Amino acid sequence: MRRYPSANQLLDEAAAQAGLADFGPGDFRDGLAVLLDSLERDGDLDPGTDAAVIGDFRRRLVNRLKVEAWYGEHPEVADVPVLGPVDINGLPRTGTTALADMLSLDPRFRCLRGWEQAEPCPPPTPDDEANDPRRLEFIAVQERRSPESRAKHLVEVDATMEDTELLGMAFHGQQMVLPVAGYRDWWREADLTSTYQYHRRVVKLLGSRRPPQLWLFKAPHHKFHLEALAAAYPDIRFVMTHRDPAKVVPSYSSLVSSITPPAAGERDLHRLGREISDHLRSGLLHAIDARKSLGEDRFLDVHHRELVADPKGTVRRIYAWLGFELTPAVERTILDWQQANRMGAAGTHRYTAEQFGLSTAQIRADYDFYIRHFDVAVEG
Question: Which sequence ranges are marked TM in the entry (predicted)?
């Protein structure tokens, strides 16, 4: 007997809940089926988490239905322009969040906020978004985070965030916070062309009543499918961040272990560490290959050591590469934020490689191709 519902069962439940039937384009059904099968086969979750996990899947299906209903009532959304975007990607824990938070302070960028992703309809408007119930709920959730959680990962309510929900609505997201190793094996090699076309469809909706049209994206997982992303956004340009993988892999393993729902028993952290190391390594191999076909001129490489040691120079270099004016007021705002949120300002994230069955020497050996290719500095 299956513990989790089938894809068809969830589709029927979402349709009944929303009173709608059109889920929109794309191959999301394939991803949903693989995800549910992997959860059934690979999952180790405490049964008490089942309602919340499946509830998220159902919510995303309901969101799909509402998106199509909105398009039906507002066909002009199809003609909404999407400029750019500028996309920040790379390994996680390399400064992607800090850099995204900094650039999000520039009002010329339209940010992909977490609170609007979780429920895209109705799209926000400038007049009422400050008190939008979705935004207020997001703030309340962040205020309940523990000091340890804040030290591990910074969250700004109106900064651009990872497109976890948009890819989740397409059921072609990374799903790193669930124990679904088999799904991730499938996802790494999946064709996300239609996924990112759907991504653009939701982005148009979100931007339809809330300018500007120049988008700023940020997601380390984009490195796995850069060509599919570029197919959906032909004018996209990429800022790729880099750091010593011996720092990155255990830090990310620690973060993932802390945000994955509780297990039924004791979770094997050594297995988790090995999976994460192999997963991220695969993403870099995908990215290096994709850069060859997309053209290196579309990528700017930013090293974590540069961002920490010289934030002003790094930001100026990014703006010069983009061909954007960096006004004194925006620069001051960015640098003030950076100073207030520099490394360690919210506390220290403590972890070791050994907790996750890893070692500094082995990680660097496994990632030697990456260190050499991008001239990544090894940290002491």
Answer: none
